[in-house]
Amino acid sequence: MIIFLRRKMSRSKECLMKYNSKKALLVTGERKLKNTSEKLFSELKVSPFYLNQLSEVLPFLSRENVDIIIFGSDTYQTQKETFSELLQTVSLNYPQSESIILARENDVPFVVSVLKFGSTHYIKYPVGIKELQSLMKSAMATQPAISPRLEKEPGKDSSRFGLIMGKSTKMQQVYAQMRHAAMTDIPVLLIGETGTGKDLAAQTIHQQSERSAQEYLPVNLGSLPNELVASELFGHEKGSFTGATHQHIGVFERATEGTVFLDEIDSVDEKVQISLLRLLEQKKFNRLGGKKTIKTDARIIAASNENLEELLRKGQFRQDLYYRLDVFRITMPPLREKIEDIPMLIEDFLTRFNKLFNKKVKKLDPECLEVLQAYNWPGNVRELKNIIQRAVLLAEGDRLYIHNLPPRLQKTRRSAHSISFRIGTPLDQIEKEVIKETLALTHNNRTQAAKLLGITRRALYNKLNKHKLK
Description:
Largest sheet: 6 strands, mixed
Oligomer: single chain
CATH class of the largest domain: Alpha Beta
Strand order of the largest sheet: 1-6-5-4-2-3
CATH architecture of the largest domain: 3-Layer(aba) Sandwich
Shape: globular
Distance between the termini: 51 Å
Mean pLDDT: 83
Strand content: 5-15%
Number of strands: 17
Low-confidence stretches: 1-20
Number of helices: 20
CATH topology of the largest domain: Rossmann fold
Number of domains: 4
């Protein structure tokens, strides 16, 4: 019995052979399985690697790219939670690797439950060499082709991906999704608040894709008057409307083999939505006032900072277009949910603006950094960038202080953010007050409060229940 989950990819299989010779990693402590696999790898002309324990997998993958990972049933018997987390990490950070799990009869329910983690296959164990060979061939046949620019290079810094920066868990997940998106030509929908970097994500996906040598044309639909949106997208013929004194070529015609980024897709009217739907379905359109049908192979990446599902319910956005655009969704996290990235972002902005303003600001005063990490960041990374730009411009030395920040941030300062207690105060009371003050400092942002307290979000919720805090 063989079951596997296929990942939809449009790259040619020949492209994969061009990039890599096949490599397989077997993780097992069973000598018999290793002996069987040696013969199998030899017949398939696959370069083999062997590990005994799950704990060795991630360090190995950081040094070596592999196409197939086979997990023996002995590796996860007593550490199923660890195994689930490992599979998820592999799927997110090493999308080029297909995983095969050998499952004994009583392990099948558990193994089926982890198939959700991307390109994971399983086969019942003990297994015949022909069955395993068949599954490996199927896995390699469905494996997405990844160009060298998309492969996670051994030892490469994972705090950046293209134009995007951040080492937080949330950003690592975004990087993995962007890699998957770059491997295909399917429409991508970027969702996120203003200032979260949707435009940079779209540009990075294009740069990392096979279309990177072609045009990348961004269009901010929300900044265009409604009557000009269709002309900008599809072009117009001379005389097609008042003021059309010459022919205009639209972005879909100019980027026929490239990528078009449609920012604020929620702002277009129904007439344009209908034209976009036709383009997505038929890959063709007409210029305004034109009779000639024009074909295009442009890839669409759309973005919105609005709740599109709510617009659907209100009848302000076409359901058929929504489902055509929402094929591969990537949610860009707000800055307040990844405050551990703030120091890295600040360092990058300092380098950039020191050069621009001929300054030599090296770091922030600790209290200044504390205020920046406690702020709620409604404008996200863009707001942080603008604040650091202003602060560097006003700085007089090699360090930024609270007085260099805008007044709205200075208001978050709270008497050095300290609490004092009398000797003999019960520990439970101290814990309760510290949690209350931390929540007040972070404007009741519990994710941020948990990080400042050095505990997990779940632990914070347990303590809130314990102390009956809301």
